[in-house]
Amino acid sequence: MTTGFVDPAHELAAFLRTRRERLDPRDVGLPVRRQARRTPGLRREEVAELAGISIDYLVRLEQARPLRPSADVVEALARALRLAPDERTYLYDLTRQRPRTTAKPSTTVAPPLARLVTDLSPLPAMVLNHRYDILAWNPEMARLLIDFDTLPPHQRNSMWLCLVHPETREYYVDRERVVREGIAYLRAAWAAHPKDPVLNELISQCITHNEQFARLWARRDVKINGRGHKVLRHPDAGEIAVHFEVLMPLQDPDQRLMICRAADDDSQAAMDRLRTR
Question: Where is the HTH cro/C1-type domain (predicted)?
């Protein structure tokens, strides 16, 4: 299977259609027609009018014609479609209107950042890149999730572990939400790195071999979670609820430092037991 599983023009067309179809006329101040609409959401002419562009131009965008909308048009479409901040960024990435670096994404951790991960003990911490590859971790994170040293490097990927690995695929109590949010982030990462062959291959393989991933990927949700809450079913310590915070190093903007802490006293006691095993 080729790694270029989707063309940005076709993704832009599908994204515009799905965001147009999810809007109710009342969301944008339009009157509700008595006659039932044949399709959900707004009509193309309504979005074109709201964005101040021609209906013909919007049709060609939704037909995946090889166009490159200006930054003004992109902003007008984002406003007309009532896009959330992460969706707006995704639209700018798809249309190549957001400034981007030409440097190749790093797949290793700088020594100072690796030392910081160690120094954050006893808080579980790890560094991931834009593909969800796990690049560095401290012992507390390995005890909380899985001993990453036992995995071959190509399996040290948070999405792969959640979807496929027999020990971790049922690790999360609210697995559907965790996978959905992970895919929404991965879609944003793909828009920022559409020519990354490793990322394209990861997404392609997940679509082909995992029904849940394929179903959620088709929703085209886009969201980047900088903090959140997860509940884990740890095989030794039972349920552990954690809050996580994700920080972006200025020197390596394609990497993410994730730090976890217990969400309650029982979870802290479980994490203490894991640390002293």
Answer: 34-88
Task: Determine whether 147 is exposed, middle or buried from the number of CB atoms within 10 Å of its CB (0-12, 13-18, 19+).
Answer: exposed
CA distance 180 to 217: 8
- pLDDT of 246 reads 96
Q: For residue 44, which of 26, 36, 56 has the smallest C-alpha distance?
A: 56
Q: What average pLDDT does the chain have?
A: 89
User: In 3-state terms, what secondary structure has residue 256?
Assistant: strand
Which two three-digit tokens encode residue 30?
């339009």
Task: Give the pLDDT confidence of 110-146 residue by residue, as tens digits.
Answer: 999 999 999 999 999 999 999 999 999 999 999 999 9
CA distance 227 to 269: 22
Q: What is the pTM of this model?
A: 0.78
> What does the buried/exposed string (b/e) look like for 155-169 if buried means 16 or more CB atoms within 10 Å of the residue's CB?
ebbbbbbbbbeeebb
3-state secondary structure of 239: strand
| CATH top class, domain 111-275 | alpha beta
- Decide: residue 142, CB within 10 A, 0-12 exposed, 13-18 middle, 19+ buried: middle
User: Does a cis peptide bond (omega within 30 degrees of 0) precede residue 31?
Assistant: no
Instruction: Kindly state the tokens that stand for 277.
Output: 């095993």
Measured in whole angstroms, the distance separating CA 215 from the mean position of its chain's CA atoms is: 15
pLDDT digits (tens, 9 = 90+) for 74-94: 999 999 999 998 899 999 999
CATH tag, 8-94: 1.10.260.40
Q: Where are the domains of the chain?
A: 8-94, 111-275
CA 112 to chain centre: 26
Radius of gyration of the chain from its Cα atoms, rounded to whole angstroms: 21
C-alpha–C-alpha distance, residues 6 and 111, integer Å: 36
Q: How buried is residue 148: exposed, middle or buried, by Cβ count under 10 Å (0-12/13-18/19+)? A: middle
